[in-house]
Amino acid sequence: MLRIKQVKERTGLSRSTIYNKMDPSSPFHDPDFPRRVHLGRASVAWEENEIDEWLHKRMNLRD
What secondary structure does DSSP assign to 1-63, as a single string? Predict the structure, then answer.
């Protein structure tokens, strides 16, 4: 599981961009971006393999 700081480091995206990618009402919404997992009332994380898969898909789009 990756916390927001690790997701930011891994993707190179800002915190606000990450949350915009998950927000269906945002013009920057990306339905393929991994959903967060609630670990507690105020604690979320992302599955590492889902972040890696998303990054690989993005890299394949450039080819």
Answer: -B-HHHHHHHH---HHHHHHHH-TTSTT--TTSPPPEEEETTEEEB-HHHHHHHHHHHHHHH-
pLDDT band for position 61 (cuts 50, 70, 90): confident
* Residues linked to residue 2 through DSSP beta bridges, in sequence order: 46
CA 50 – CA 55 distance, rounded (Å): 9
Closest CA to 13 of 43, 46, 40: 46
Q: pTM for the whole thing?
A: 0.89
In 3-state terms, what secondary structure has residue 23? coil
Encoded amino acid at 15, one letter = R
Token representation of residue 18: 């990450």
Give CA 39 to chain center in angstroms: 16
